[in-house]
Specification:
2 domains, 4-stranded parallel beta sheet, 10 strands, 4-stranded mixed beta sheet, single chain, 268 residues, Rossmann fold, 22% strand
C-alpha cells in the first residue's frame, strides 16, 4: 500500500459528511453496486475492504455508484473493482441480490454481485485504507465490525463447486472420458466437448468448415464459464484449435493446467 498524506483521509471524510447532509436534504434516487470478489485460487476466500472515508473501521465490499442509463450493474462492478483495487474480474458476474436502502438519507438501489478476481495482488486506490482476503465465515476478522453489505453478500453467495473446461484434440476420447469421470467424482463441474470432430461422429465437420468454426466459438463460451482450464495434451500433442483455446483462456485470466504436468488420478 503506497504512502499517503494523513490529510487525505480527513478531507475524504469531511467531503463524505457534506455529501450525506445533501442526501438527507434532497433525498436523491441513486444506484450502486457491491462486489463479493472471490480469490482466484478457488479456496473460497473473498476480499473485504475498509474505506478511507466512510466508516473506516468497518470491513465491507468494494463498490460504488453508477448510472443505469450509462452502464449495466455488471459493467459498473468491473469498473469499481478496477478503479479501487487494480484488479480484473475473470468470470461472469452473478447478481446475488438487489436491495433498496435509505440508511444514508438517499433512496439507494444496490445490486450485490459476485465474481472471481484475475489476481490476488490488489493495488489500493486512495479510496481504500485496507484490503484482506478472508474466509467466508469471517473468522479471519476476529470480531472486527463488518458492514451489512458484506454479511448480505455472504448470506446469498452459493457455495458452488469449481468449474473446469476440458480442452484438447477430440481424437483422445478415452482421455476426455477419464478426466470427466475423475474430476466429476472429485466434486468439480466439468465442461467438455459436445461434438467430437475426429472419427465417425465428426463426419461433416471438416477443418475450416462453418460447423467447425461455430463449435470452436461455442467451446470458448464454455471457457468463459469455467474457473480453470485443463488441457489433455496426450503424448504432448496440442493441435491448432487447442492452442487457440489456451491463448483465449490466458487472455481472459483463466488458470491453465496440463495433463502432462498435473495428471489426474482415477478413483480406485
Amino acid at each position: 500500500m503506497p504512502n499517503r498524506s494523513p490529510l487525505l483521509p480527513c478531507l475524504l471524510r469531511a467531503g463524505h459528511q457534506l455529501q450525506r447532509l445533501w442526501w438527507r436534504v434532497r433525498r436523491p434516487r441513486t444506484f450502486g453496486v457491491q462486489v463479493l470478489l472471490r480469490h482466484p485460487d478457488r479456496s473460497g476466500r473473498v476480499l473485504a475492504v475498509r474505506h478511507s472515508y466512510a466508516d473506516p473501521e468497518r470491513w465491507t465490499l468494494p463498490g460504488g455508484g453508477y448510472r443505469p442509463r450509462r452502464e449495466s450493474a455488471q459493467d459498473a462492478a468491473r469498473r469499481e473493482v478496477r478503479e479501487e483495487l487494480g484488479l480484473e474480474v475473470t468470470s461472469t458476474l452473478t447478481v446475488l441480490t438487489t436491495k433498496v436502502s435509505s440508511a444514508s438519507g438517499k433512496r439507494d438501489t444496490v445490486t450485490v454481485l459476485t465474481g472471481t478476481a484475475a489476481s490476488a495482488d490488489a493495488h489500493l486506490s486512495y479510496e481504500l485504507r485496507d484490503a484482506r482476503w478472508i474466509r467466508p465465515d469471517l473468522t479471519d476478522l476476529a470480531g472486527e465490525p463488518t458492514s451489512q453489505w458484506l454479511r448480505t453478500a455472504l448470506e446469498h453467495a452459493p457455495e458452488r463447486p469449481p468449474i473446469v473446461c476440458l480442452c484438447g484434440s477430440s481424437r483422445f476420447r478415452d482421455a476426455f472420458a477419464q478426466a470427466n469421470y475423475a474430476l466429476t467424482l472429485a466434486g468439480q463441474i466439468v465442461l467438455s466437448i459436445g461434438v467430437p470432430t475426429h472419427g465417425a461422429d465428426g463426419e461433416g465437420v471438416s477443418q475450416g468448415s462453418a460447423a467447425k468454426i461455430a463449435l470452436g466459438e461455442l467451446h470458448k463460451r464454455k471457457i468463459d464459464l469455467a474457473d480453470w482450464v485443463y488441457v489433455l495434451d496426450v503424448d504432448g500433442y496440442i493441435g491448432e484449435s487447442t492452442r487457440s483455446e489456451i491463448a483465449y483462456a490466458q487472455q481472459h485470466g483463466k488458470p491453465v493446467r496440463y495433463l502432462s504436468q498435473q495428471p489426474f488420478e482415477l478413483p480406485a
